[in-house]
Write a structure and sequence with these properties.
Elements lengths: L21 H7 L1 H8 L5 E4 L7 E4 L2 H9 L5 E2 H8 L2 H5 L1 H5 L3 H12 L5 H18 L7 E3 H18 L4 H18 L2 H12 L8 H23 L8 H6 L11 H30 L3 H13 L3 H13 L5 E6 L3 E3 L2 E3 L4 E5 H4 L40 H16 L2 E5 L7 E3 L4 E3 L4 E6 L1
Parallel strand pairs: 2-8
Antiparallel strand pairs: 1-2, 3-5, 4-12, 5-8, 6-7, 9-12, 10-11
Helix pairs in contact: 1-2, 8-9, 8-18, 9-14, 10-12, 12-14, 14-16, 14-18, 15-16, 16-18
């Protein structure tokens, strides 16, 4: 994208969010701040004295321009480092690999594990793990579905991504994942995250998180060694597919690249999908017509309404509210000059609530996705462009299969009259009450 020589606007001309701590409101109190953003322009600036200046946009045209940029003017990894907790969660090496030629090479190699036959190969394992969990789920009493979904999501990830079957390694992996979940959602992570924002993305060493990364890496490397020692011993899982990638002009994945990819997959894929399942339960419990549509799909052996339900949940409650870019050099965003050093955020939540795109945007209506595919630049829970979440297809498949398996045996009933509000965690937007519902046998 060429830099405009005579830009129509600079950031000074863009409306600023009201109040010095409006950006904090936007994150911590989403329902309260939405009262202002409902009437806000497509673009506005959040400018707080202790944090980088951020331009937020919910313009589909801006979104198209941002996602189409691939010449290094907008950096994804650096954006996450400066305004998201990903440096500590995913590791420095994972963020470094999110931009440049190496990102393109590794992404091409990883892609085969998340399309076509690969996705089909994961389906049986997802269903089996879900059925095993269902045997112990309580019925007839209110339960925090978010807790059930978190434990289920952990075991689906362990089975489908890692495929570890050796009991000792499997137990060590489960312990590492449980430690990871606690660390990601801890006050310590929040404190370090806030400090890193003030320090312009410079994270202090985090020994506890580094130890968790090391534990996951050790299990991964042991599993790699075991499979190489006994060819054909792996199953239908991501690790097996990574190990069997045929050499091309991009080469093959090194062990370090596999370890990094596995770490990103478990962190990004676990919390986000579990959270989406929690929101689906919370919404279906309060929308009998949508719940009936899902049960009809299950009974008929079809999936169209189930898929639309997952898509609608991701529209209303995207796991993360923004997708970020760091402006590495002056950039023309459709006539607006963004100086180097600016942070640029595509506002996923506001995009998904545009009434001209989604009529009655606050209503849960899976039907809106029955007759057409979601828009590339207007339905963006997985981001877009060369940085669209590589596991998007896997996440949609996983959520659909788990929902179908659950509704084959159980149904959701609301445990309280009012719907749950959103609350922010360090990584996702979660139901404030843990998606408390009552499960009943069908």
């Amino acid at each position: 994208m060429a830099v405009a020589t005579a830009p129509a606007q600079t950031l000074k001309a863009v409306p600023h969010a009201p109040g010095g701590f409006a950006g904090l409101d936007r994150w911590v109190f989403p329902q309260r701040f939405i009262k202002w953003t409902d009437a806000a322009p497509d673009r506005y600036v959040v400018d707080m004295p202790w944090a980088p200046k951020v331009l937020l946009t919910c313009s589909p045209d801006d979104c198209r321009t941002i996602f189409a940029e691939h010449d290094g003017a907008l950096l994804f990894g650096e954006g996450l480092r400066r305004m998201a907790p990903h440096e500590a969660m995913f590791g420095h090496d994972a963020l470094e690999a999110l931009d440049g030629e190496e990102h393109t090479r590794v992404r091409r190699l990883l892609t085969s594990a998340f399309h076509g036959d690969a996705l089909k190969g994961y389906e049986r394992g997802i269903v089996e793990v879900t059925e095993r969990h269902l045997r112990s789920w309580p019925t007839g009493t209110p339960v925090r579905f978010a807790d059930l979904a978190r434990d289920l999501g952990r075991d689906v990830i362990a089975h489908t991504v890692f495929g570890v079957t050796e009991p000792g390694r499997a137990r060590r992996l489960q312990l590492a994942l449980d430690r990871l979940d606690k660390a990601v959602n801890s006050l310590e992570m929040s404190r370090r995250f806030a400090t890193a924002i003030v320090r312009r993305g410079k994270w202090a060493p985090y020994p506890a998180m580094e130890a968790i990364h090391a534990a996951i890496a050790q299990v991964t490397l042991e599993e790699i060694a075991a499979r190489r020692a006994t060819p054909g011993s792996g199953g239908d899982d991501c690790l097996e597919r990574f190990l069997n990638i045929e050499a091309t002009e991009d080469g093959v994945l090194s062990d370090d690249e596999i370890v990094s990819a596995m770490r990103v997959l478990v962190i990004a894929g676990w919390a986000t999908t579990a959270n989406t399942l929690a929101w689906i339960a919370e919404r279906l419990a309060r929308n009998p017509q949508a719940l009936a549509g899902c049960h009809h799909d299950v009974n008929a052996g079809t999936s169209r309404y189930l898929v639309a339900t997952v898509q609608e949940a991701l529209r209303m409650r995207p796991p993360v509210p923004f997708t970020l870019r760091y402006v590495a050099r002056d950039f023309d965003l459709d006539g607006l000059l963004l100086p180097a050093g600016t942070l640029l955020a595509t506002d996923i939540e506001r995009m998904h609530y545009r009434p001209e795109i989604y009529p009655e945007p606050r209503s849960f209506r899976p039907e809106r996705f029955i007759d057409g595919r979601p828009g590339t630049y207007t339905w963006i829970p997985f981001g877009g462009g060369v940085h669209r979440c590589i596991g998007a297809g896997f996440a949609l498949t996983e959520a659909r299969l788990i929902l179908a398996t659950v509704l084959d045996r159980l149904t959701f009933a609301r445990a309280a009259a009012r719907g749950e509000r959103s609350r922010r965690t360090n990584l996702v937007t979660a139901p404030a009450g843990g998606a408390t519902v009552t499960l009943w046998p069908v």
